[in-house]
Design goal:
By secondary structure, the protein is of the alpha+beta class. It has helices at residues 10-23, 36-43, 47-59, 88-91, 112-118, 150-156, 158-167, and strands spanning 63-66, 70-73, 98-108, 126-135, 138-147, 173-176. Helix 1 (10-23) crosses helix 3 (47-59) and helix 6 packs across helix 7. It is globular, with a radius of gyration of 19 Å. It starts with 9 loop residues before the first helix and ends with a strand.
Amino acid sequence: MAGSGQRRRPVVALYERIADAVHDGTYPPGSTLPSEPKLAAELGVSRPALREALLLLQEDGLLTVRRGVGRTVNARPPRRGFEQVQPLEGLIGAGEPLRVRALLRTVEEPTDFTTQHLHAPARAELRFWESVLTGEGVAAALSHEWAAADEVLDTVHPAFARALRAVDGEPGAAAVSML
């Protein structure tokens, strides 16, 4: 596959098209996007691909979903840039340690995304971490991680649950080997 490093998944390209439409004012802040069937037809894409792109846009803070209203463009959509995320292994030097600096450690209720991917019940408590990962002294990635509730982890992977409890709340950076 020639040029596969620059090739984007169709959902990423769709994400970018919608994000561009938000940033160029086609869908201004506070506006409601057309219904899924109408938007899919306008963009010439399948509804499953559109749903995935919309979910990613919601997770990245461009859209808010409100029951009975639909998908609304947030009043202050985040700046462009996250759409250009590259694979982590391509951003850090081979064999170099990856440094992780904790930004946020909390417990939260699942979002649509985490409910779908972690099969978490709607009122579950999930651990959430936000970290900056650096390689060779340069920020390489912003990491968002979720883990199932403690009682689930204790059942399905006790060693992982113990490891999480052991590092919970530790301030500062930790080195993680990427080898």
